Amino acid sequence: MTGELPDEPAWKAPHGIPVSILTGFLGAGKTTLLNRLIGDPWFSDAALIINEFGDVGIDHLLVESSGDGVIELSDGCLCCTVRGELVDTLADLMDRMQTGRIRPFSRVVIETTGLADPVPVMQSVIGHPALGQSYRLEGLVTVVDAVNGLATLDAHAEARRQVAVADTLVVSKAELAGSGDALVERLEALNPLARIVYAADAGVTAEKLFDTGAYDPVAHSLDVARWMSSRSDHDHHHGHHHHDVNRHDAHIRSDSLVFEKPIAPKALAMFLDLLRSAHGPNLLRMKGIVKLSDDPSRPLVLHAVQSLMSEPVRLPAWPEGAAQETRLVIIARDMPKGFIAELFGAFVDEPGIGRPDRDALTDNPLVIPGMPSRR
Ligand SMILES: Nc1nc2c(ncn2[C@@H]2O[C@H](COP(=O)(O)OP(=O)(O)OP(=O)(O)O)[C@@H](O)[C@H]2O)c(=O)[nH]1
């Protein structure tokens, strides 16, 4: 779970119960959205973790309490509140399921409070040694209010982070806001990885919202092709000018790269180690699909939140319609322009003028102790 690359190029299916996180600033419309979706059959084998029962207004759905604060809704969804640390709640749910005290669930949705920084929540899922065996991070959904969204993004760093690290952005209250173009443009600039949907769109079902297919792009219809294509290409061709549109967003930047030649697994491992040790705290989100030299027909999918990387998944084949080349998109704070391409180039390409060379980088005395450099 700490991001070791698999030694064997075997197909590796994702494991663990998928955990989706729903966030959004105060009053953005998280509860309204959950209320609409909770009747979906998708929720019947889910466990929903919320902050307070009152928040979700599910009273009409309550049937029975299985004791100690886990309740079962009439459609089967299990519901509980966070008590103490989130990791304890997740561990407790798993324990109860395994000991037969609550009915089995096959997915988890966590609604965070409006002011929460979602990164520690995500890290508590993928960074926890024991929980990481039982759960995997499926994705982060952030609700943004079309009426107040721009002002909220201006005023609150937490709101910008919620947008910057999301897999999916849901625009609520669009019917009250006229053209939401300025908001959408701002969201795209803050996070070119995310797909943007409208809360009022009837096509937005629980399954479509929460199952990102992040780790299984062959079975799902193509999260990878989407996040690696349209808007990151746009980003390429147009440089980064729209990152400077708003001074508040100036230090959150995305950087992406495309690389055609297959990459040696070792070179990739070194690149990732160095990226995380040198840039971990500022790295908000990374997604990538990598063409490895051991078997270029089976790409590796990478996901990271800050310095924590989910276990990489080796796909059996390239997603249909996706170009068969390595693509990495990184969203980071205070990242020098072109940093990723420079660093990547040092590991996979010939070192060039103005590009740090591999030996110099791996000898860097500033590399965090304990981070293997695998020379
Ligand atoms: N018109 C309209 N109103 C909405 C929409 N979504 C939410 N609202 C309203 O916005 C207000 C806040 O919505 P909530 O769903 O409670 O927001 P929340 O994000 O759960 O709020 P907190 O729990 O306080 O963080 C409520 O009055 C909702 O009725 C929407 O899509 N359209």
TrEMBL record:
Gene3D superfamilies, sorted: CobW-like, C-terminal domain, P-loop containing nucleotide triphosphate hydrolases
Annotated CobW C-terminal domain residues: 252-348
Entries under InterPro entries matching the protein: CobW-likC_sf (IPR036627), CobW-like_C (IPR011629), CobW/HypB/UreG_nucleotide-bd (IPR003495), P-loop_NTPase (IPR027417), Zinc-reg_GTPase_activator (IPR051316)
Region (Disordered) location: 355-375
Reactions it catalyzes: GTP + H2O = GDP + phosphate + H(+)
KW Hydrolase (keyword) present: yes
Keywords attached to this entry: Chaperone, Hydrolase, Nucleotide-binding
Pfam families, per database record: cobW (PF02492), CobW_C (PF07683)
SMART domains the UniProt entry points to: CobW_C
Family designation: Belongs to the SIMIBI class G3E GTPase family. ZNG1 subfamily.
Function: Zinc chaperone that directly transfers zinc cofactor to target proteins, thereby activating them. Zinc is transferred from the CXCC motif in the GTPase domain to the zinc binding site in target proteins in a process requiring GTP hydrolysis.
Protein name (database record): GTP-binding protein
Organism listed in the record: Hoeflea ulvae
